From TrEMBL, chain A:
Species in which this protein is naturally found: Pedobacter jejuensis
GO MF annotation terms: DNA binding
PROSITE patterns on file: HTH_CROC1
Domain HTH cro/C1-type: 26-80
Name of the protein described by the UniProt record: XRE family transcriptional regulator
Coiled-coil parts of chain: none
InterPro entries tied to this protein: Cro/C1-type_HTH, Lambda_DNA-bd_dom_sf
TrEMBL record, chain B:
Superkingdom of the organism of origin: Bacteria
Protein name from the UniProt record: Preprotein translocase subunit SecB
Species this chain originates from: Pedobacter jejuensis
């Protein structure tokens, strides 16, 4: 038996592990959503014995089967990191970056550098340039309420000339 | 008959808000060791108005570069502020073409720049721009985004 186990390839072992993890996850979701194996079988038009076999582990699930199960349960079995996660990660990075900068300021590695505290909503963009961190606040968005003055370069010149 | 140009009544003008958008000084110890660097300034100003609200807004940005011969040319500070003003009955300042007279924008621009000059000076103590004072500029130079050496 031990000899047989040692003969299983790394790839096969990973496949079995994944399969058991998926079975466990499906069993957990069924319990969470109070769906019996019988109900799931009916929804998927399968025999209850087949569902039971899936949940016992070792089944090689196809992508199609996993999608059908997810839809039947009403919750994804797994999630691939998408845009939302990336945005969350970006915000996390901003927090980490701010913390590092604050620490450096505290340790006087960077002295007397000013960093304004802006709430997340106010930060429309964050650039890191030679001059440090530049945060553009929501006040820029207020521009919509103001119209640019219709001025020519010579306007001020003429007034200044008249004054002097 | 020549229509009289509206005149500004300075008592009707008040500052309502000064909002910092960017305040940033890079203060690398290497920059502090540079003896007698020259500085250049880049100014950017956008005068705006809201007639219904009797409001004037001056968006003003200053970036400061430090230079030392061919060895150094680096942007070391950026300040960007929005200045909000209130003028009672801004409509009184409309000329015959329906435009607000440029004098009010010149006044607000000069007020904003001199205020920002003070803000930068008070913020620059013990930094690499400690001894660098923003130059006195005319409204025309402000409009043109003057680059001055110090």
């Amino acid at each position: 038996m031990e000899q047989l186990r040692s003969e299983i390839s790394v790839e096969d072992k990973a496949l079995i592990d994944d399969s058991f993890a998926l079975s466990n996850r499906i069993a957990y979701l069924l319990k969470k959503h109070k769906i019996s194996q019988k109900n799931l079988a009916q929804k998927l038009q399968k025999r209850e014995s087949e569902i039971s076999k899936w949940l016992s582990g070792g089944h090689n699930f196809t992508q199609q089967t996993l999608t059908k199960i997810s839809l039947a349960i009403g919750e994804p079995i797994y999630q691939i990191p998408g845009a939302e996660v990336q945005i969350e990660k970006a915000i996390d990075s901003i927090h980490i970056f701010k913390a590092i900068i604050s620490k450096l300021v505290e340790l006087k590695k960077i002295s007397h550098t000013h960093f304004e505290n802006y709430s997340e909503k106010e930060v429309s963009s964050l650039c890191v340039g030679a001059s440090g961190v530049i945060c553009k606040s929501a006040t820029e968005q207020e521009k919509a309420n103001f119209s640019p003055a219709n001025l020519h370069k010579s306007d001020f010149k003429n007034i200044e000339k008249a004054i002097s | 008959m020549k229509i009289k140009k509206p005149k500004i009544d300075i008592s009707k003008l008040s500052v309502t808000q000064i909002i910092p958008k960017t305040k940033s000084i890079v203060n690398d110890p290497v920059l502090m060791d540079i003896k007698k660097p020259t500085a250049s300034f880049q100014l950017e100003m956008t005068p705006m108005f809201n007639l219904a609200e009797d409001a004037i807004k001056i968006e003003l940005s200053v970036s400061i570069d430090l230079n030392k011969g061919k060895k150094l040319h680096a942007q070391v500070a950026v300040f960007s502020y929005d200045f909000y003003y209130q003028y009672n009955n801004l409509k009184d300042l409309l000329d015959e073409e329906g435009e607000i007279v440029s004098e009010i924008f010149l006044t607000c621009s000069n007020l904003s720049y001199s205020t920002l000059r003070g803000i930068i000076y008070s913020n620059s103590a013990k930094t690499c721009i400690e001894n660098i004072l923003l130059p006195i500029v005319t409204g025309t130079q402000l409009m043109e985004g003057a680059v001055k050496s110090h």
